[in-house]
Amino acid sequence: MIAPFSNSKIIYSGTGRRKTSIARVKLIPGSGKLIINGIPGELYLQFSPNYLRVSCAPLKTLGLRNEYDVYVKAEGGGLTGQADAIRLGLARALCTINPDNRITLKASGFLTRDARVKERKKYGLRKARKAPQYSKR
Domain range for residue 104? Predict the structure, then answer.
């Protein structure tokens, strides 16, 4: 399959991460399409209004919703992590378009990487912090 943006000259890109998800976002001047892994964004995000709202929040904040086509390669994790990774990647790509966008996006919290990840399991415990039941005798 040939990439739909191979002939375009102006491509803005950004990478977003959340939990174990990674999203590589490419912005191309266009009509406002969202394509994730070759599938329309609404279908990929299972028509969830929350995931769609989170993914496109930086564009909506700047009022650029229908001015750029968004192409995403998302991998790892689940839909929640991928939606947040798309949001971060999109915000970083918008900063490369115009450095003045950074002020607005930073104030809205879109440029902050959420560093929370699952804590590792420790030996002697059932989960990361859950201990086996204590027996007195």
Answer: 12-108
